[in-house]
Write a structure and sequence with these properties.
By secondary structure, the protein is α/β, with parallel strands linked by helices. The protein has helices spanning 12-19, 45-57, 72-86, 102-113, 117-122, 138-145, 170-175, 194-207, 230-236, 251-255, 269-282, 288-298, 302-323, 345-356, 388-404; strands at residues 32-33, 96-99, 128-131, 149-152, 155-156, 162-163, 176-182, 210-214, 245-250, 263-267, 336-340, 358-359, 361-362, 379-383. It has a 7-stranded mixed β-sheet, with helices on both faces.
């Protein structure tokens, strides 16, 4: 067996299952989960119909292996969306690639980028993958299984949970081969400004590492201005070739289709070329029927506008309720509330589940200790993914719980 597998930590939801293993929730209350970031809004009917039509109109489509590059019409849909959303002009054939959701691609991209031969040339023990903290656990797992050392950048809560890039030692940057960023962030919802992107591009130019920008929450936001994307930032800063940058996005949150496992990556053509080579061997081509439904989804914005409006309305109603008893604020984007609680975050989650049958995720499960501090401790993540009435009911139970808790 691959000995690196022993380095992997249990996934947050497995840890949550263990935390609740001996709990008996209040039987008088129906369970409400705010734990998993899985969209619950209905999948638009036209996307489902596009998939059905694909099967019925091209019965031979499932009898052939799909190309790893995807259909040309799919990649044109990617480039069309990038132009519409960010004002970018990209070559669909050389600067885009379909992926089976951002999670799969983030893992595979890390395996493509990390080069075990390079650290020896620099006299370092291991290559480094720099990650945000708190973070999406696939970043850590992908780094470990690539034989790299994950380095977690501290978060500055006073600056809207911005990463403290200045705290990273030069010795770490010298070993860094990949930097993963998430904007809008999971779980904080923070959006990186142009000045932060400039800092990271300057560091990339100086040390030669690749930037992977996880942007799966980019279409759920609460300000008038849409979140800045990595490639958009690069273009504004005079980097139209997107040098050493790959952005990854997904339909899961944007279009409420997590079961389709569909998204795309775009950016530096040289990296896309090598990533395509890896994926050809990896065997991760997208199904033709998923491609057809994806084209329909990327070509339509009305359902995205309506979806965003539902989240905005929901957050406008739920956030003030919880803000009365918890330390939290409306995020820039995403569908999470990141709240500070009194005492242990795991005790809070376990007691809330037992007494009020509401599931939230302890913040410490989403982060690692950095410089002796775990930025997720005494915090919880609440995913407002269900319909508004259910989220409001959960919020009211949490308010009651906090008010009666010692």
């Amino acid at each position: 067996m691959n000995s690196l597998l022993s380095l992997l930590q249990p996934y947050p939801f497995e840890r949550l299952r263990q935390l609740f293993a001996h709990c008996t929730p209040n039987p008088a209350l129906a369970h409400i989960s705010l734990g998993m970031g899985e969209p619950k809004h209905p999948t638009p009917a036209f996307i489902q119909q596009a998939m059905i039509d694909s099967v019925l109109s091209t019965p031979s489509g499932l009898a052939s292996y799909p190309a790893t590059t995807g259909d040309a019409k799919l990649r044109e849909a990617f480039s069309h969306w990038l132009h519409q959303r960010y004002g970018l002009d990209v070559n669909p054939a050389t600067q885009t690639l379909p992926i089976n959701g951002s999670r799969e691609a983030l893992f595979a991209l890390t395996q493509t980028i990390v080069d075990q031969a390079r650290p020896g040339e620099r006299g370092a023990a291991k290559p480094v993958v720099v990650c945000p903290n708190p973070f999406y656990q696939i970043y850590e797992g992908a780094a470990l299984l690539a034989g790299a050392e994950p380095y977690f950048v501290p978060t500055d809560a006073a600056r809207n949970f911005a990463q403290d890039w200045d705290s990273v030692p030069d010795a770490i940057w010298q070993r860094t081969q990949l930097l993963i960023v998430c904007s809008p962030g999971n779980p904080t919802g923070a959006v990186m400004p142009l000045s932060e992107w400039k800092k990271l591009f300057d560091l990339s130019d100086r040390y030669g590492f690749v930037l992977a920008s996880d942007e799966c929450y980019s279409e759920i936001y609460f300000r008038d201005e849409a979140p800045l994307g990595g490639m958009e930032a690069a273009a504004r800063l005079g980097r139209p070739d997107f040098r050493n940058l790959i952005s990854l996005t997904s339909l899961s949150k944007r279009s409420n289709v997590p079961g389709m496992r569909s998204g795309f990556c775009a950016g530096d053509a040289a990296i896309i070329e090598k990533f395509l080579l890896y994926r050809t061997y990896h065997g991760c081509a997208m199904s033709p029927v998923v491609q057809a439904a994806s084209i329909a989804a990327w070509r339509d914005e009305q359902h995205v506008i309506e979806n965003r409006a539902k989240y905005r309305s929901k957050f406008e109603q739920v956030t003030p309720l919880l803000a009365d008893v918890l330390e939290l604020a409306l995020p820039d984007a995403g569908f999470y509330l990141w709240a500070r609680v009194k005492g242990s975050d795991t005790d809070f989650a376990r007691e809330l589940f037992t007494l009020y049958n509401v599931t939230v995720l302890p913040g410490s499960y989403l982060s690692r200790a950095s410089q002796g501090v775990n930025p997720g401790e005494q915090r919880i993540r609440m995913a407002l993914v269900a319909e508004t009435a259910e989220c409001l009911e959960a919020a009211q139970r949490i308010v009651q719980f906090v008010k009666t808790r010692p």
